[in-house]
Amino acid sequence: MMRFPFRRKRPPALADSGPRARVVIVGGGFGGLRAAKAFADAPVQVTLVDRRNHHLFQPLLYQVATAALSPADIAQPIRSVLRGQSNVEVILAGVNSIDVAAKEVVLDEDVGRLRYDYLILAAGANHAYFGHDEWAPSAPGLKTLEDALDIRRRILTSFEEAEHEPDPARRKALMTFVVVGAGPTGVEMAGAIAEIARFSLARDFRHIDTRDAKVILLEAGPQLLGAFPDRLSRHALRDLERLGVDVRFGKPVTAITPDAVTVGDEIIPANTIVWAAGVQASPLGRSLGVDLDRAGRVLINPDLSVPGHPEIYVIGDMASLKDARGRPFPGVAQVAMQQGAWAAANIQGAIEGRRVRPFRYRDLGNMATIGRNSAVADIRGLRLTGFVAWLAWAVVHILNLIGFRNRVLVALQWLWDYLTFQRGARLITGVAAD
Amino acid sequence: MMRFPFRRKRPPALADSGPRARVVIVGGGFGGLRAAKAFADAPVQVTLVDRRNHHLFQPLLYQVATAALSPADIAQPIRSVLRGQSNVEVILAGVNSIDVAAKEVVLDEDVGRLRYDYLILAAGANHAYFGHDEWAPSAPGLKTLEDALDIRRRILTSFEEAEHEPDPARRKALMTFVVVGAGPTGVEMAGAIAEIARFSLARDFRHIDTRDAKVILLEAGPQLLGAFPDRLSRHALRDLERLGVDVRFGKPVTAITPDAVTVGDEIIPANTIVWAAGVQASPLGRSLGVDLDRAGRVLINPDLSVPGHPEIYVIGDMASLKDARGRPFPGVAQVAMQQGAWAAANIQGAIEGRRVRPFRYRDLGNMATIGRNSAVADIRGLRLTGFVAWLAWAVVHILNLIGFRNRVLVALQWLWDYLTFQRGARLITGVAAD
Predict the structure, then answer these.
(1) pLDDT tens-digit profile of A91-114?
(2) Residue at A418 is within a domain
(3) Interface of B with A in 105-134 (CB under 8 A)
(4) Which domain holds residue B101?
């Protein structure tokens, strides 16, 4: 076991100006990465640790799951994003726990411990099955690139098997796709699967008509896109139904097996089931020994620090905080990014002896896409639907991707898909390579 | 168990013109795909079966393994390539064996049997370890997209682990990359790994200098790129050595473990080992009950048919055939493609009562690339090196990719990599998603 830093190729730029505060950031998602960038030129030594080598642009992950984009188009190596910042080092390792007393981050597999003066926890959330973890193998969620490739494989393989399935009942199950949960991810998945069946694959098979595929979107609550204004969520519903998606409200899923979903009294035979219904914060919050909410999020102070630990900040999907009107901040990228910058500013303030300030959120709006020419957007009161919303959605997402290369590649592929109705990443991979 | 075809969405275009000969093609690689296309408009019913849903452009697979391209850039769904040909159906299934007596292809997992009047076997080859299959987990070869992603993961993870490895000996092993076999794949892999270490990663790490990485290319024979003229192979050697690759000839590898390669008396500690030394034809050839060569290839007639079975053709990497001067045809894409077209023509000739003709090969040349601005090309006697060869290599490979979309995406990414010295697909994926 060793302590970082243990060796240094070249001295840090400001090494002579005395000992510098050590900041450790756990997680290279939207929050952690923004925090690391906010420390550029600050007299601190930053270590960002993530179990992945890449930052993932999660809002477009469903496009990898539905064969429109490649993993590399929406992911960027974290150390390459931060290469120009000489006061940042990046470590690829899992984090086991936080040793609050020793002020150390304990890494997995005896890689070592990271000492910190200040800690920013930004390890995000994973999907949760409300106490039914046994559903996970049958109904994968969508959080990582591996999840997305798994779902892509399931969708494409279902059509392939249906093509040579002689039993009509089994063929129908192979061509039934159930998405559980009608938040943005569920709506986007359901719309994209319907488009694959109706357009992209329509001419490719000889024995099945892919347009017979059934896409069912299940929502236990009363409406889809609950975070959006009523008019927009009704609009999204109409657009989904025009694509042929069967949207059902008000009944919770009670059982999931590899080949069926039970909702209320009804058993729906389905070969492909996608889970988009709930998340659980990273278990790292538990090792802080402070209060958590039901979803495992840390109940933080308004300044984003942890009660009793002014040196620890928790941000993004790991944090539970309410705004001035008592509404919880949603688990979206813009909250995480703004909190990342805010936590970094508060830490610099604390180092310089200034007072830390309570987090203030600047809500830039909300968007979700249903399919070609169809999206809903609520941008600071301006409510858009249809083609205009879809175009706004596309532009905002391309501009927010990291890296010029990815922006060009995604824009080109969208243009191509739009003109040809095709999807460029229709690969079934990950099967046994024999 | 059922027999194909068992159901049909719409009648085939020429269904009224009497019973049509059934052609089954096993394999959607260069040979099989070209054969299927050659049957366009022919009065035959073609079934192409492959265990993969995609045709893979293998000559660029090393670029996926070295993080320059994404899998989807060099792969295309087979049924999408053939969607316009109404007399072709595509089945995604593995082939278990050929029942020569019943004239049936036996599919894996009880999917069924495919009756044929004519059969084209084009199932290719896999890497072979010369009786040392135990080396496979330590030294993966490069045949599938999964192989490529596995090698990419190993290369990138080695640098990540070296960054926080305190033991100097272990760090040196992590930064040692051994490629076994100096044919085109081995040369291209060694050159690309050296470029990653020297250029792409050079500024990304804080504790290691990636330019210290050691790339060793081992070749048991006396020279690299054995199929090329001497002058070109010497030129390639010089270019590789300029990139810092340590090329060693004349000693066979005698042992491979997860962390070392033994060559002659020397044990080379290395964390990443890539196998590019030998291939073995698909085991399907065995079920024909005819003579095979040492690499498992079927010894075929000059017209590409199997001795005693004029209804069975074997092409590409599965076939063993010598040209008029007694030299075996090499296992490259252009041989497979020309044989695919030739076998299709001979089958049509046989159906129409014409005489089948012996295969004639039109050698269009040979190319291999070492790195930026560096390649060798032997095009019908015209011998190119350096930048000109590299440009010719790039143009030829882009033009031969299937699909306008892939051509544009690959060209753009190469341009981007060329200008920035970066690699756009530096993802470590496939790790446990916890």
Answers:
(1) 999 999 999 999 999 999 878 999
(2) no
(3) 111-112
(4) 15-127+279-351
